[in-house]
C-alpha cells in the first residue's frame, strides 16, 4: 500500500528540511566562509588603495605646482592708508619713495533748479564728448579726448522730464553718472564724469529745446555750472614728478600698480618690490601636507599595530613599499642641476620624522630664499618636475596603482563567479538530497501503513481460546 507524501518528513516524522540544510552547510559552509573572507579582504584592500591613490594624486598635484614655480616679485607699502601697491609678478626688485600731493578727481556739473523731478525740460538731442579745456581763452578751447567717441542722448515725449533725462544718461552707460538732487528749494540734475582732466565734459544741444543742459567750459556759454573741477593725481616717485588721470597708477613702475588713497604728509611712503617668498613657502608646505596625508594612510593600512596585534590590509604590499621608497628617496636624493647648496629638499628645510611624516622648517627655507631666491626656485622646479614625472606615471591609467586595483577587481570578479558556481552546486545537491529523503519518507510511510494493516488483520483473527470445543 503506497502513501502520498505532501510534505517531506510527514511520513517518517523526521525534519527533512533541517537535515538537508545541515548537510548542505557541512558540505558547502567552509567554502562559503572562505570565499566571503577573501571577498571582504579584497574589498578592504580596494578601499585602502582608493585612499592611497587619492593621496598620491594630491602629492602629484603639489609636485606639479613646484615644477611650475617661477621667480615672481610682489610689492608692499609702508602706509596702506595712503598708497597700496600690487605686483603682477613681473616687476623687478627695488625700493621706491612715493609722495602724493593731489588725488585725481572727476568733474561734476549741475543744472539750474527745477520745481520737481518730473518737470518738463523740452525735447531734442544732447551730445556728450570727453576732453580737456583751455579756460584761458575766450571762449575756452576744447580738445576732444581721442580715446573716446561722442555719445548722443535723445529726449522725446516719453522721457522729457528731469528724471527722464537722468535715466537716459545712466542707461547709455558711457562714463557719466546722473542723479537728481533736492537742494531744499527745488531739484537739480547733477552729472559726474570720470576722474582726470581728460574727462571733462563738453555738452551741446542739436536743434532742440534742451539748452538748459549745455556746457562749454567755465568761461563759455554754459548753462550747466561746474561744482567740482576735474583734477589729475600728482605724485613723485623717487623725486620724479608724475601726473596721472587716475588714482590707479599702472605705468610708473613696470609690473606694479599703485593705488592712491590719500595725501602724504612728512615722509614719503616706501614701496618695496621683493621676491614672492610666500608663494614658494605655500607651495612647499602644500607638498609636505599632501605627503603627510599619504604617510598617515600608509600607517593605517600597511603597518602592524602591536597594541591591538592587528595587521593593516596592505601590510607587505609591494606597491605601497615602492611608493614609500620613492618618496623617501625623493627627500634625500640629489637634485640634478640645482645649485650646490641646495642639492636636496633637506637643504631647503624639509626633514623626515620618525613616524614617517615630513616637517618643514620655514625659517630655514626663508633664509635660503633670502640668500639665493633664484637658486631655491630653480631647485624646487627641478625636484617638482623630476619627482612629479615619476609619481604622475604611477597614478595614470597605466600606473602601478591602477594595475593593482585592476588586479583586485579581477579577483573580486573571479570570487563572484565562484559564489555563483557554488550556489549552483548547492541547489543541485539540495535537489538530490530532497529527492532521496522524500523517497525514504515515502517508504517509511508505506511501511507504517503496511504495519498498521497487518496489525489490524491479525487483531481480527479468532483467538486460540475461543476456537477450542468444550469437552473435546
List keywords for this structure.
472 residues, alpha+beta, 3 domains, 5-stranded antiparallel beta sheet, 4-stranded antiparallel beta sheet, 6 helices, 42% helix, 23% strand, elongated
Q: Which percent band covers the strand fraction?
A: 15-25%
> From the structure provided, what is the oligomeric state, counting identical versus distinct chains?
single chain
Whole-number total of structural domains: 3
How would a crystallographer describe the biggest sheet? 5 strands, antiparallel
Question: What distance lies between the first and last C-alpha atoms, to the nearest angstrom?
Answer: 42 Å
Report the order of strands and helices.
HEEEEEEEHEEEEEEEEEHEEHEEHH
Record field, number of beta strands: 20
- Structural class category: alpha+beta
Radius of gyration: 47 Å
- Mean pLDDT comes to 87
Q: Numbering strands along the chain, what is their spatial order in the largest sheet?
A: 1-16-3-12-13
Descriptive report:
This protein is an alpha+beta fold and 472 residues long. The protein has 3 domains: 1-72 and 276-451; 73-103 and 234-275, no CATH class; 106-231, no CATH class. The protein contains 6 helices and 20 strands. The protein has a 5-stranded antiparallel beta sheet, with no helix packed on it. Helix 1 runs antiparallel to helix 3, helix 1 (16-67) crosses helix 5 and helix 1 runs antiparallel to helix 6 (400-460). The longest helix has 61 residues, at 400-460.
Amino acid at each position: 500500500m503506497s502513501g502520498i507524501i505532501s510534505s517531506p518528513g510527514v511520513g517518517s516524522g523526521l525534519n527533512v528540511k533541517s537535515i538537508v540544510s545541515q548537510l548542505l552547510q557541512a558540505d558547502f559552509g567552509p567554502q562559503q566562509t572562505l570565499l566571503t573572507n577573501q571577498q571582504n579582504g579584497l574589498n578592504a584592500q580596494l578601499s585602502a588603495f582608493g585612499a592611497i591613490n587619492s593621496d598620491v594624486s594630491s602629492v602629484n598635484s603639489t609636485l606639479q605646482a613646484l615644477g611650475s614655480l617661477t621667480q615672481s616679485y610682489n610689492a608692499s607699502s609702508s602706509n596702506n592708508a595712503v598708497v597700496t601697491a600690487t605686483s603682477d609678478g613681473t616687476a623687478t626688485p627695488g625700493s621706491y619713495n612715493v609722495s602724493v600731493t593731489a588725488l585725481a578727481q572727476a568733474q561734476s556739473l549741475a543744472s539750474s533748479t527745477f520745481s520737481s523731478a518730473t518737470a518738463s525740460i523740452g525735447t531734442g538731442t544732447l551730445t556728450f564728448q570727453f576732453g580737456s579745456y583751455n579756460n584761458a581763452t575766450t571762449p575756452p578751447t576744447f580738445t576732444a579726448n581721442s580715446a573716446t567717441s561722442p555719445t548722443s542722448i535723445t529726449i522725446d515725449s516719453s522721457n522729457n522730464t528731469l528724471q527722464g533725462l537722468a535715466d537716459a544718461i545712466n542707461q547709455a552707460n558711457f562714463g557719466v553718472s546722473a542723479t537728481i538732487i533736492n537742494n531744499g528749494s527745488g531739484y537739480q540734475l547733477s552729472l559726474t564724469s570720470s576722474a582726470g582732466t581728460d574727462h571733462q565734459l563738453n555738452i551741446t544741444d542739436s536743434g532742440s529745446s534742451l539748452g538748459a543742459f549745455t556746457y562749454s567750459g567755465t568761461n563759455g556759454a554754459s548753462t550747466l555750472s561746474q561744482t567740482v573741477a576735474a583734477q589729475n593725481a600728482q605724485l613723485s616717485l623717487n623725486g620724479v614728478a608724475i601726473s596721472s588721470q587716475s588714482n590707479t597708477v599702472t605705468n610708473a613702475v613696470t609690473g606694479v600698480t599703485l593705488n592712491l588713497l590719500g595725501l602724504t604728509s612728512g615722509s614719503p611712503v616706501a614701496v618695496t618690490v621683493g621676491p614672492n617668498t610666500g608663494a614658494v613657502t605655500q607651495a612647499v608646505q602644500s607638498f609636505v601636507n599632501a605627503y603627510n596625508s599619504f604617510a598617515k594612510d600608509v600607517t593605517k593600512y600597511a603597518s602592524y599595530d602591536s597594541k591591538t596585534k592587528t595587521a593593516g590590509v596592505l601590510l607587505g604590499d609591494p606597491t605601497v613599499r615602492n611608493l614609500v621608497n620613492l618618496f623617501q628617496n625623493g627627500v634625500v636624493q640629489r637634485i640634478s642641476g640645482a645649485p650646490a647648496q641646495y642639492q636636496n629638499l633637506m637643504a631647503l628645510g624639509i626633514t623626515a620624522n620618525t613616524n614617517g611624516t615630513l616637517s618643514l622648517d620655514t625659517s630655514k627655507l626663508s633664509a635660503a630664499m633670502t640668500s639665493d631666491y633664484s637658486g631655491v626656485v630653480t631647485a624646487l622646479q627641478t625636484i617638482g618636475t623630476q619627482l612629479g614625472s615619476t609619481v604622475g606615471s604611477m597614478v595614470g591609467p597605466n600606473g602601478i596603482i591602477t594595475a593593482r586595483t585592476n588586479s583586485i577587481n579581477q579577483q573580486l570578479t573571479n570570487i563572484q563567479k565562484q559564489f555563483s558556481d557554488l550556489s549552483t552546486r548547492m541547489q543541485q545537491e539540495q535537489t538530490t538530497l530532497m529527492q532521496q529523503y522524500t523517497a525514504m519518507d515515502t517508504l517509511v510511510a508505506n511501511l507504517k501503513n503496511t504495519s498498521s494493516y497487518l496489525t489490524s488483520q491479525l487483531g481480527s483473527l479468532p483467538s486460540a481460546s475461543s476456537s477450542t470445543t468444550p469437552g473435546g
